[in-house]
Sequence to fold (285 residues):
Amino acid sequence: MKQRLLTAVVGISVGILVLCLNNTLVFPIFVAFIAVMAVQEILTVCGCRKFPVHFGMCLLFAAAIPMLTWFPQVGMVWRMFAATIIVFFMFAGYVADHKKLPFDKLAVMVTVTSLITFSITCLVSLKNMSDVHGICYVVMALMAAWIPDAGAYFVGTACGKHKLCPDISPKKTIEGAVGGLVVTAIVFILFGMGYKYCMHTFKGIDFEVNYIALAVIMLIAAFISMVGDLSASLLKREYNIKDYGKLLPGHGGVVDRFDSVFFVLPYIMLVFNAFGQKIFIHSVS
Fold:
């Protein structure tokens, strides 16, 4: 438990530092690091590390996309071009080494690398989405993934009786899942109030918060987060492993902490891109 708490304290401290340096290259470098570590953890579990050339190209893909997304002068077309080039060389390598590299392993590498990389890159896109609220969007996206899990844990520990998915995650309960949803709604309503107050007090920026929209959006995010967590747990059971890695002592690997984040981020980015102006409503003078 001490090791787990110490890792959590260090992780939170690093996270706060990265958020404070959100306008520097530290931010996309950290996002790229998370992408690389997550990709290598899952591909290692899936037995893809024994194909070093393709494995290396996957890590290159995971590192490149967040960094390219950070720079506004690198448009979407060029980012997709870079991604396509890497995938092309992976398939070229498959053609050249098809006797040793089975297609199912190639498919796993391409799919896992693309999904995780483009998902975690949403952190950079959220930051770039708004000069005023960008970093808040990042914080809210991470909270939308982690708050339901924390709420479900505490509520489930206190009063959980009915198993949610005993074959996948025996400790999760229906009461905990419902509690996670309720806690998420409450936390984000309070967060909206606090964020509005801080922006007015410290930056002189005034706006109204649509608390109903905020609560509904985050309730959906909480549900997505739970699906992501269960999906990661199912994969661990399939490969008979306890953790995806050992980078975070007491917690496992990056995927063990970010599994639900990978599912929630694309949803949050799409919703905030479409309806962000209806959540934080600025008066038009």
About this structure: The first strand starts at residue 163 and ends at 165. Residues 15 and 255 are 16 Å apart (CA to CA). The two ends are 54 Å apart (CA to CA). The first helix runs from residue 2 to 20.
